[in-house]
Design a protein that fits this description.
89 residues, alpha+beta, Herpes Virus-1, 2 domains, 3 strands
């Protein structure tokens, strides 16, 4: 199947983790789902007291702390959060 050369493919690493080792040199598109702006990726509901981990991923405050109690790593990219979440509400 021939690819349309006018559209870049989405970077798999960035889509799955929110980061890419190639940064600006990556030949693929770095996009985040629009739903991530309004929906918590843990509970899949609209944010209730939105917070952001150091890695840049956002969650509901309750979801972030509940998840941190189980695992000290980010739910999405598995980078250690050290329990630090910045309020975005």
């Amino acid at each position: 199947m021939k690819q349309n050369k006018t559209h870049k493919l989405v970077c798999k690493e960035f889509k799955e983790t929110g980061t890419c080792r190639y940064k600006d040199d990556c030949k693929y598109l770095h996009t985040i789902d629009v739903d991530d702006d309004i929906i918590c990726m843990i509970c899949r509901k609209e944010y209730d007291e939105k917070v952001m981990a150091d890695c840049g991923h956002a969650f509901c405050l309750k979801c972030a702390f509940d998840e941190y109690q189980k695992d000290d790593k980010c739910y999405k990219c598995k980078i250690n959060t050290y329990g630090r979440f910045k309020p975005l509400f």
